[in-house]
Every structure is written in structure tokens, then in C-alpha cells.
Amino acid sequence: xxxxxxxxxxxxxxxxxxxxxxxxxxxxxxxxxxxxxxxxxxxxxxxxxxxxxxxxxxxxxxxxxxxxxxxxxxxxxxxxxxxxxxxxxxxxxxxxxxxxxxxxxxxxxxxxxxxxxxxxxxxxxxxxxxxxxxxxxxxxxx
Length: 142
Fold this sequence. Notes:
This protein is α+β, with helices and mostly antiparallel strands. It has a single domain, classed as Transcriptional regulator MraZ domain (Chemotaxis protein chec). The chain contains five helices and eight strands; from the N terminus they run E-E-H-E-E-H-H-E-E-H-E-E-H. The strands form two sheets. The chain has a six-stranded antiparallel β-sheet with strand order 1-7-8-4-3-5. A two-stranded antiparallel sheet has the order 2-6. A hairpin with a 5-residue loop joins strand 3 (30-34) and strand 4 (40-44). The longest helix has 22 residues, at 117-138. 20% of the residues are buried.
């Protein structure tokens, strides 16, 4: 299981140093793919193949299923953790997520999220505002 928020940097070759506590779980390999939140997702091999099995069981007669498969599975790349504890992020995925220099790695139970720091800060600010609004509305029984 992955937990916590970690601030790191992307190097000039598109590599990220993973927090030490995440490396063992990813030692057997990993998959990096796009997220609908304009960040990247990192799965262990085991969790990735379980997800792909579930996705492949969906009815491909639906356009939304095919689009989901293309987005999630079609954009995925296989990777590994180097001896230095780094993973490489391909250029197309770096561009998609807006990764430049400063990044945030978030542990979200069975996966990691990799965010551009600026995007993550904007997301958190909007999420906190939404939570405040929800609390105010809850007072009215909604």
C-alpha cells in the first residue's frame, strides 16, 4: 500500500527518484499511464494486470469502453526501478502531465500519482474550497 505526499524533481533525462519506502513494492516492475486528472498513475505489475483484466472484461461494443481502454491501457508504458531508485517517464507522458521540474508523488493505496507541483497545488486548493462549501451546505441538511 502506498501513502503520503512526497516532493521530488524530474531530472534532465526525464527520471524521477522514488521515495525509498515505495521502491520495494515496485521492485518487480511497474506500469505508468495517464490519469483523468492530468497526472500520471503508477501501478505495480500485479495491480496493473488485475486492472487490465477488469478493463478487458468490459463490453467493447460500447464506445466509452473502447475510449477508456485506449486512454488508460493504450498510453501505458512498462518500467522498472533503477539501482538508484529512479524511474523514467517517457516524453509523451511528461507532456501530458505537464511535468517539468518540480513534482509531487502521492501514495493512493494501490497506486502512485505523479503530479506537476503547480497542478497539484491548484487541485488541492480547489478541493479544499469544495470541502468548505460542502460543509456549509451540510448544515442545511443537503
